[in-house]
Design brief:
This is Integrase core domain-containing protein. It comes from Dreissena polymorpha. This protein is about 65% helix and about 0% strand. The chain is built from seven helices and no strands. It has helices at about 5-15, 25-50, 65-70, 90-100, 110-120, 130-150, 155-170. α5 (about 110-120) packs across α6. The two termini are about 15 Å apart.
Length: about 170
């Protein structure tokens, strides 16, 4: 899938009322439910791009071949290696150690991760999702779980009644 597919999917989720982009819990849940699936898709795109063959172009001076081979072994295609080391690796390691932070696990806060894992366990949900549809179902189930924790009123019951209809329309479209 490409970026437009994901943007359209999240827009559809928003249009159907499943996703509220102004709600930080919804944004955390989107990351938790879709980050691994999107990463998998991006890795597939990278693999396809890096292993496709760039054709020779007579109008410009550019070597032909597979991008991955052109980058790592340019001499195979009669090209020269233009990579240069900008800094010493030790200096780079020092800067990285001093100024970088580890990203949060699965792209979400520890607090959200605790709740999401509880939802997955309590509701016997599939994690990680394998595709967009499973991610959408997981998102809806976790949001409903969180709403039940926070709200104990009729609003949650109403959302539970509407949820299957929204999911069916979203996955069809």
């Amino acid at each position: 899938m490409c970026g437009n597919v994901w943007m359209n999917h999240f827009k559809d989720m928003s249009d159907f009322g499943l996703l509220d982009t102004s709600d930080s819990v919804h944004l955390e849940c989107i990351r938790y439910c879709f980050l691994l699936v999107i990463s998998k898709d991006l890795n597939e795109v990278c693999n396809i791009w890096n292993t496709h063959c760039v054709r020779r172009n007579n109008r410009i001076s550019c070597p032909a071949g597979k991008p991955e081979v052109l980058f790592f072994q340019p001499e195979v295609h009669g090209a020269r290696d233009c990579k240069i080391s900008l800094v010493d690796q030790r200096e780079l390691n020092d800067v990285e150690r001093e100024y970088s932070q580890c990203p949060p696990e699965l792209g979400v806060s520890q607090e959200f991760l605790t709740i999401a894992r509880a939802a997955v366990g309590d509701l016997n949900l599939q994690y990680p999702p394998r595709n967009r549809e499973e991610g959408t179902e997981l998102f809806a189930a976790i949001i409903m779980y969180i709403e039940r924790l926070v709200y104990h009123g009729n609003e949650t019951k109403m959302n539970l009644m509407i949820l299957p209809y929204k999911l069916a329309n979203l996955c069809i479209g």
